[in-house]
Amino acid sequence: MALKKKPVTGMRDILPREMQIRDYVIGVIKETYGSFGFTSMETPGVDHIENLTNRQGGDNEKLVFKILKRGEKLDVAQARTEEEVVDGGLRYDLTVPLVRYYANNAAALPAPFKALQIGNVWRAERPQRGRFRQFMQCDIDILGEPSNLAEIELILATTTTLGRLGFKGFEIRINDRQILKAMAAYSGFAQEDYDSVFITLDKMDKIGQEGVQAELLEKGFPQAAVEKYLALYGGLAQAEDGVAYLAEKLEGVLDLSVTQGLREIMDSVTATRTADFQMVFDATLVRGMSYYTGTIYEVAIPEFGGSCGGGGRYDGMVGRFTGNDVPACGFSIGFERIILLLTESGFQVPGESRKVAYLVEKGMAGDGLVEVIAKAQEARREGTQVLVVRMNKNKKFQKEQLAAEGYQEIVEFYREKCEGNH
Fold first, then answer.
1. Residue-wise pLDDT tens digits, 167-218
2. DSSP per residue over 311-380, as a string?
């Protein structure tokens, strides 16, 4: 049986040109986030199945790649439930592993802890443009900071990074889970129904208010509650200042400090931003993870036509591990989607060193070969990137390939002489 040369569905091979862009972007991310005081850390790709299925990861928990027990612990013949044969899984995001990491190492970490984590995650979902089953995530998180200074720093660090990568005219859409809950309570929905209501609300940009209304009614919610709920969004569409509008409408249901805090975040970021973007209040923004407890936000880049990252506050998550809640807030940049946009736009890595290829005639050996390698070593010491390879029979095609890879000069070396072709 022949071995399969294509990657597993939803996985992909990354060619050198894209890898060069990825390495550059990671370098910009690390340098920029480092300037904001974030420090690199790492967690394992495999986590306990209990941690990955604790009802905090939303629909992603349905997409976990599960790992069977090993050796004597695995007894498939006697097993009656999945729990008896599975004890681990591949992480579906970086937040759950980070919180476990913090709970295990808090005594050795600074307070607050500003974490930068870059690594692959895995989700058994349907692949599509910009979405894979294995993909890189890049997260920054602040644990131990209860004030909205955390949100301000996270948004500024992320937008500064996007600006340095050349993105302009994008939006940071922001909301608060407490506002979402207050709007649902004001309208008359039962607390246990909030998540179901929010799942439908999250489709507003795709199906519109009429679609949201129809779906909420199909779910059996009272018509009076549905109409009152959508009337709030109708008023928001007409309001000059959505935050002020909701502060007034939800008086007595929503603590005034929530809208004041949201306003402070938006104003502070707008006053100190260095990138070209806008802060936009979006009361339909839900974010799928059920672990969010307060502010939520996402990046919308026009070229992609959708979200290219997001995050929020998840103050109750550490307590699931330790019994003591710790304020926590994070922002995940859409690494793969950013790479896709840069690659499709023909992005060239700035400041690349000069690239020269030395084509060495087949049969050249001994002192002649040593002389060529010595020339390459000298050029490398001067900062030039030099590729030394044997000359192919189809030299024309070889040169075309090298030119496509960005080699600006090609030098041919023969046993008796050498000549430079530019």
1. 999 999 999 999 999 999 999 999 999 989 998 998 888 899 899 999 999 9
2. EEE-TTSTHHHHSS---EEEEEE-HHHHHHHHHHTT---TTPPPEEEEEEPTT--HHHHHHHHHHHHHHH
